[in-house]
Design brief:
The complex is a heterodimer of chains A (111) and B (112). With 111 residues, chain A is mostly beta strands. In chain A, 0% of the residues lie in helices and 54% in strands. In chain A, strand 9 and strand 10 form a beta hairpin. The chains are: A mainly beta (111), B mainly beta (112).
Amino acid sequence: GENVGLHLPTLSVQEGDNSIINCAYSNSASDYFIWYKQESGKGPQFIIDIRSNMDKRQGQRVTVLLNKTVKHLSLQIAATQPGDSAVYFCAERGSARQLTFGSGTQLTVLP
Amino acid sequence: NAGVTQTPKFQVLKTGQSMTLQCAQDMNHNSMYWYRQDPGMGLRLIYYSASEGTTDKGEVPNGYNVSRLNKREFSLRLESAAPSQTSVYFCASSEPWATEAFFGQGTRLTVV
């Protein structure tokens, strides 16, 4: 079945450093992979997506990398800021166009 | 622009009680979803509605029912609440082809 999981449940980084959040997936049929951010007490918020036929996509301060060979997805955040502290979820969109979410990584930005 | 609005924000139920969680969106989206989020876990899909007039089961539908009242509103009903249904419930909406779903603020439900 589908399985979207994360390597590390928590990640702490110094303000200004770059952050890398990783995710493993098992459903090779997914057409899109997506990253969501969830701040405390709020619903998840879309950050960026990547189509399965791409290996890199950049947004504002964020880059998503997709390695289909090892079924690995990562989110890189440049110059991490206190406002980046949140739980980050990877998700994949399967053949039925439903999103399957991973268990999340808590990112803490240290001053 | 309110986006996705869920009511109530908090609720405590006794085992066996029933209740309906309300969700409304003002973005004219065709698709709507109900998820539950448990500690240390991601969001799991309970039910979804791809368009007005249709509903389908997600990953964890047992113990729940849904109603797509109109294009704006999608409600989730617990007929006989159980402690295992203690969770945070999120409603979301999107266009069917989109990867970006818009989520409400969540309903924190405790069943005692």
